[in-house]
Amino acid sequence: MGEAIVVGITDAAVTRRAVDWAAQRAAERRQPLELLAVVGGATGAVGEGAIVEAALAEAQARAEGEASRIAAGGIEVRTRVERGNPVSRLLEASENAALLVVGSDYRGPGSKAARGAHGLRIAAGAHCPVVVVPDLDTSGRSGVVVGVDGSPAGEKAVAFAAAEADRLREPLIAVSVWTPLEVPRNMGVYPVEYLENLARLTEESLGISLAGLRSQYPDLTIEPRVERGYPSQIINELAAQARLAVVGSHGRGALARFLLGSISQEVLARLATVTAVVR
C-alpha cells in the first residue's frame, strides 16, 4: 500500500463530507490526498464523444474545485479524472493507497440502504481499508467504536481503531457481542450456566484482543463492552453516538473477493456514523 488517501468524488452532496473527513486525517497524519473522479456509463454509441468530453471536463472542474477548497490547510492534494467503471477504477486506485474514502447518501434511520451493490463491492474488494462517510452531521459525537471478534480481520480492525482513537483523542469503545444458539421449541429457556459461559468466554476473548494497547497508547482511554445480542445491531447502536466505527471484513479467497462478511455488510447497510472497513 502507498501513503496517499484516495477519495472517490462525485456530484453528490455527500462528497464534500467525504473530502473534509479525508482532508482532516491527511493534515493530521501528513499524508498526501488524491481526489479521484470517474466518468462511467459510456457505450461507444455514435455521437457520444461530445457528451463524454463534457462530462470529463465537468468532473475535472469539480475535482479542482474541491482541491482548491482544502489546499489552504497545507495538504498535498492532487486530482485525477478517469473514464471507465467507477468500481473497477476505485479498486485499482486502492492498490497503491493507504486508505480509500467514499461517500454514501444515507441519511439515517428511515432512509434507503446506505450502499447498493457497487458500494459493497468497493468496501469488500479494496486492497486497503475503506472509509464510508454517510450524509450525516456527526459533530458533537464522541468515541471510536470497534467490533471485536478475535478473528485476524478483527485484530486488524482493533489496531486501526486504536490508532484512530489515539489520533482523535477519543475513547476506544471495544465491543464483543455474544449470541446464544436458537433454543429448540421443546427446550423452553436457556440454561443459566450456558449463558454465563458464553458471556465469560466473550469477555476473555475481548481481553486478549485488547492486550498490549495500553502500553502502545498510554494516553488512550479504552472502554471494553461485552453485550448480548446481534453484532451489527449492537455496533450501530453504539456507533450512533460515535465519531467513527470500525469493522473487519473477512476475505474468503478470490471467488468471494467482492463479498463482505454478513456483519460488516449489515453495518454498512444502516450506517450510523463514519465507518471504516478493514481487511
From TrEMBL:
* SUPFAM superfamilies xref list: Adenine nucleotide alpha hydrolases-like (SSF52402)
Looking up InterPro entries in the UniProt record yields: Rossmann-like_a/b/a_fold, Universal_stress_UspA, UspA
Annotated UspA domain ranges read 4-134, 144-279
Q: Name one Pfam family in it.
A: Usp
User: Which Gene3D superfamilies has this protein been placed in?
Assistant: HUPs (3.40.50.620)
Family named by the database record = Belongs to the universal stress protein A family.
Protein name per its UniProtKB record: Universal stress protein
Q: Write down the species.
A: Microbacterium helvum
